[in-house]
Specification:
The chain contains eight helices and seven strands; from the N terminus they run ββαβααβαβααββαα. By secondary structure, the protein is of the alpha/beta class. The protein has a five-stranded mixed sheet with strand order 4-3-5-7-6. This is Type-4 uracil-DNA glycosylase.
């Protein structure tokens, strides 16, 4: 892709509203050979300011949950469907998701994780290309063709859901337990998951 060097999108002006609202492009973060790759929807204000995905309150929830499972943030890769902050933190529009999809597919193909975990409704519906009741489907695993490659995908509630509704924490934790178990079983190379 003309605007992508390695796993980094260096310049993109496909979405005028996002170009106007962003201060920078927020690329994926983490090992380029990660066994476990998380996909969120789009950067928020703090991510836009720092240039890294999931560094706000939702990131804190995710990082704590990873630590509880013997993992560090540096053991996994975290990215978003859309790499630029939408105005007022709104959900990305369908056209914006479509405009950025090639970047995400390229990243997934190059990292080639053992498991992709979608965090919340937007990335889950975008990658499965159907309507999803995330709370009901959390922990479910699907084989999905993305670009030229097929990936194993696990549905998970968004970490932010646990901040607004504590009852979601068990659903979130169960899905993460399943993700770590699946990667542990299928990875073969345990070093890809740090000290877990």
């Amino acid at each position: 892709m003309e605007n992508m060097e390695g796993l980094t999108v260096t310049d993109c002006e496909r979405c005028p509203a996002l170009c106007e609202s962003r201060s920078r492009i927020v690329n994926g973060d983490g090992p380029e050979d990660a066994a476990l790759l998380f996909v969120g929807e789009a950067p928020g204000a703090q991510e836009d300011a720092e240039g890294k995905p999931f560094v706000g309150r939702s990131g804190d929830v995710l990082h704590e949950a990873l630590r509880e499972r013997g993992l560090a943030r540096s053991d996994v890769r975290i990215t978003n469907c859309v790499r630029c902050r939408p105005p007022d933190n709104r959900d990305p529009h369908k056209e914006e998701l479509t405009n950025c999809r090639g970047y995400l597919e390229t990243e997934l193909a190059r990292v080639d994780p053992d498991l992709v975990v979608t965090l919340g409704k937007v990335p889950t519906e975008h990658l499965l290309e159907r309507s999803v009741a995330v709370t009901k489907e959390a922990g479910s695993v699907h084989d999905v063709r993305l670009g030229e490659t097929t990936h194993r995908l696990l549905v998970c509630v968004h970490p932010a859901a646990t901040l607004y509704d504590r009852s979601q924490r068990a659903t979130f934790d169960d899905a993460l337990d399943e993700a770590v178990a699946l990667v542990g079983e299928g990875a073969g190379d345990q070093s890809r998951l740090g000290d877990y």
